[in-house]
Amino acid sequence: MKKGIHPEYREVVFWDTSSDTKFISRSTSNTKETIKMENGKEYPVIKVEVSSASHPFFTGKKLFVDTAGRVEKFKNKYQKKA
Questions:
Q1: Is 72 inside any structural domain?
Q2: Total number of domains in the chain
Q3: SS3 per residue for the chain
Q4: The pairing of beta strand 21-27 with beta strand 10-16
Q5: Phi, then psi, of 60 in degrees rounded to 5
Q6: Which candidate among 21, 34, 49, 67 keeps its CA 20 to 30 Å from the CA of 56?
């Protein structure tokens, strides 16, 4: 492999904001935010809305989140006019 053309592969914290779960993994994504974990080390943090800690497939819970009212907007736009 050529040197200097590959992004840095480093440990980062993925923070599931919907369930407030944090886990350490590795990624090449760049971020300016950092967080200090329980082990005392400081890691770059990547915020995600869905992970295995909050996804219905993994949790077994049925959860419907409509953050922007998209369903209502769709129904209002395409409902039959009487």
A1: yes
A2: 1
A3: CCCCCCCCCEEEEEEECCCCEEEEEEECCCCCCEEECCCCCEEEEEEECCCCCCCHHHHCCCCCCCCCCHHHHHHHHHCCCC
A4: antiparallel
A5: 80, 5
A6: 34
pLDDT by residue for the chain (82 residues), tens only, comes to 788 899 889 999 999 888 888 999 999 998 899 999 888 999 999 998 888 777 766 666 765 555 567 777 777 778 876 5
**How many beta carbons lie within 10 A of that of residue 30, not counting itself?**
11
8 sits in the region (left: phi over 0; alpha: psi -120 to 50; else beta) called beta
Find the domain containing 55 and state its range. 10-78
Instruction: Provide the whole-model pTM.
Output: 0.64
